[in-house]
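Bug: token stream looks shifted between consecutive jobs. Job 1:
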Amino acid sequence: MKTYDLRSDTITKPTDAMRKAMAAAEVGDDVYFEDPSINKLQEMAAELTGKEAALFVSSGSMGNLISIFLHAGQGREVLCHRDSHIIHHELSSGSALAGAALIGLEGGRGKLNPGALSSAVRPDRYDNCRSGMVELENTINGVYYRRVELKAVSDFAVAAGLPVHMDGARLFNAALASGMTVSEIAAHADSVSFCLSKGLGAPVGSCLCGSKEFIKEARRIRKMLGGGMRQAGILAAAGIYALENNVERLADDHAAASRIAEALSGCSWAELEPADVETNIIFFNTVGRSAGQVVESLAEKGVLGSSDGASTIRLVTSLAVGGGDIDDICSIIEGEA
């Protein structure tokens, strides 16, 4: 039986062409700034995001943590959405290691808005923890920020004197779905990170982008966190290949997610609105059965998903499934009793 893995876009594996690029990579000691492949990747990342400089880091979590260190730090608050990755999936590293308090705010479909931010900014009193930065995630749970929404958040932050960090783990998905360029989106943030290891298909790594001074300090924090790089150009080469070859194909993942959502909408045991699926992530509620029961039943037929609570399921499309796979997945879903 063939298995179709929709648990996450993190399960993608390097293609043969990416592996060849990794094997042929020029390398050097990055601590001495001498790894040509890392240098090239960082230059590409800075240019794509419209920032002055970039730093190759081991993960999106590390990129976010470094940004919290530098923008907020000890005794300050990070204003973010209550569903954000930095709250739920990074072991409170912003608090445990950077010393910042993570303040989760409400907002429709995971997105921040000036009203929620305004109510959370602290008065300037000696006994108050100061607001240190705004953090937004794009996409968040597969939903992207519209241009007007990004501008509203960034305009508020500028007026409040707060830097903005964008967790752009799936930044390129957001760009394709919104019709904006990556640099247009990133212009609304002081720093931005994006993952190479999700839909872009690289095995590991993220890029953190910002001003030259920010990245200079970010390198110091990366070292403090144990992230000094040596001959990591082998990994950077995968990132270069991903940026050169795997960006436009993300549209295929979006189209596949839409097709699966349509199939689910016709099932009595699934509740969702297909139009709510904006990129490559599908969330739906189960009806009459628990999420665990549905996940287990689909897995027995070869479709792997993940439960996100008692009655919510998440499916994610990626390089790992494509072409005729989507027809098969939809058939299995439609045949599920």
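Job 2, same session, no restart:
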Amino acid sequence: MDVLALSDAKVGSVGVVDRVDLPDEVSDYLAHLGFLPGTSIEILRRAPAGDPRVYRIDGVEVGLRNETARHIFLRLNSDAANEAK
């Protein structure tokens, strides 16, 4: 599976969180929202201007700005990885 920044994944993609490269206080907050390695995540939609985007993680919809999402890395499912290329 390819690993890419969450901010680079296309709407409709599904993947698994690989790692979060942010300061501890931000990583801890995101962990409480479900952004933990091994957790499935779906990219649902983006705002008209492109930022923020909405993700589904553990059945909950969470909006994140691209500035934060670019530090979260995921492994795309193989079908989505082929479409992203």
